[in-house]
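Human:
Take a look at this sequence-structure pair and walk me through the tokens.
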Amino acid sequence: MENSKKQISVLYNSACPICDAGIRGEKERTPDDNVRWHDIHTEPDALDNTNLDKEFVRQRLHVVDGDGNPHIGIDAFIAIWNVSPSQRWKAKLFSAPVIHGLAATAYNAFAWLLYKVNRLLRRW
């Protein structure tokens, strides 16, 4: 079955204002029947039936696909874009090997910085 046919679960942290704004944008572009959105800041129990570490989910966007496979960081965005008809072009673009490597490096550096700033500002 195609990824676009299976519902995914997105785990994100709305306590980070930049992360929250990004997810709000994704929600506007992604059909509700394709995604279950879980804000671990307001729904900490969303992690109860997962093996995911709360601090790591605060640091990086996480998606669990319909087969139970985790996708983290840029791969999480690719999973979201794959279930959004208007965003599939982004999934293809960012899956290309060189672009994927550069995007993953940039995402990880930015996510690390955001996490440190949010911890310093005591957002959680």
Remarks:
- The helical segments are 17-29, 54-59, 74-82, 88-95, 97-120.
- DSSP finds five helices and four strands in the chain.
- The mean pLDDT is 93.
- Residues 3-120 form one domain.
